[in-house]
Amino acid sequence: MIDKCFATKRNSDSEIRALKQAVLYGLTSAKAIACDCFGTDMIDERTDEVIARLLSDSLIYEFWITSKTRVFLATPGGHALVCEPEPVHDRRTSFRSLVSGIAMLNFCCVMNEHCQLTRREDIKRLLPGLDRMGAPGSQYIKSVKVARVFGIAKIDFGGAGNWEHIVRKTVAKAHQLVEIPDYLRLAKAKRFELTVLTAMPEKARRINLRFAEYGATTPVRMQAVPIPDLLPLVAPLLC
C-alpha cells in the first residue's frame, strides 16, 4: 500500500525517507535526515535541499524547541503522502513527546547506522511473540552482522539525579522479561537489550558502572546511552 502511495508522487527518494522518518519518530532533524539519507552527520546543501523541498510542498513544518534547536514535524499532507494516519490526539510538541522523539531519533538514526524504531505490527512480523512488553515508541531493532537485536528503550526524564532508581527498575525489568521464553531465548543468544537514554553523559557513565555489577545476574544486555541533544529540553530540570 505504501509503495502505491509513493508511486504517484514527484518527491525524491531522499525526501520520502526524511518524511517517513518524521512520521515514524513524531519528528525529525537536519542531522537525522543527513545521517539517514546521505550517511553523514554533516549537514550540507543536500540536506538543506531536502528540507526546503518538504517545507515548500507543505509536507513538514518547523518547530523551534529553543532558539537554537529546530525540529520538523509531518503535516497532514505529509502523513497522507506516506499513507500513515495522523495522530488522533496530537501531542507531538508536548514535553514528554519531544524528549522521547528526540531521544529515539538520535539513538536510532544518528548514533546507530542499522537501527530503527519498530512499531508493534513490525515486531509481530519480524519477531513473533515479542509484542507484549514495552511502551509504544520504545521498541527498536538493530541489525548486527547477520542477526537482529531487539531492544526496549527507557527514556530518562529525571534530570541529573535519580540514576540509582533507574538502575533498580531496569534490572528488575530484565529479570521479569527473561521469565518469558521468547525473551530468554533472545537474551541467551545476545540478541536482546534494555537501553536507558539520558541527556547527561556523567549520569550514563554511573548507570553503566552499576549495570556492570549486575551483569552476571541476567543474560539481558543493559546499557545507558547519553543523548546530548536532550540537554536543551532537560536543562530547566537541572537548576
C-alpha geometry: globular
Which H/E pattern describes the elements?
HHHHEEHHEHEEHHEHEH
What is the count of β-strands?
A: 7
- How many separate domains? 2
Strand order of the largest sheet: 3-4-5-6-7
Largest sheet: 5 strands, mixed
* Alpha plus pi helix count: 11
User: What is the rounded distance between the termini?
Assistant: 49 Å
* Gyration radius, rounded: 18 Å
Assembly of the depicted chains: single chain
Strand content: 15-25%
Structural class category = alpha/beta
Low-confidence stretches: none
Helix content: 40-55%
Mean residue pLDDT: 86
The third-level CATH topology of the largest domain is Rossmann fold
- CATH top level of the largest domain is Alpha Beta
Named at the architecture level, the CATH assignment of the largest domain is 3-Layer(aba) Sandwich
Structure, described:
- By secondary structure, this protein is an alpha/beta fold.
- It folds into 2 domains: 2-92, Winged helix-like DNA-binding domain superfamily/Winged helix DNA-binding domain (Arc Repressor Mutant, subunit A); 115-238, Rossmann fold.
- Helices cover 46% and strands 18% of the residues.
- The chain has helices at 2-7, 13-25, 30-38, 45-56, 76-81, 95-110, 120-126, 163-177, 181-188, 201-214, 231-234; strands spanning 60-66, 69-74, 115-117, 139-144, 147-155, 192-198, 221-226.
- Strands 3-4-5-6-7 form a 5-stranded mixed beta sheet.
- The longest helix is centred in the middle third of the chain and has 16 residues, at 95-110.
- The radius of gyration is 18 Å and the shape is globular.
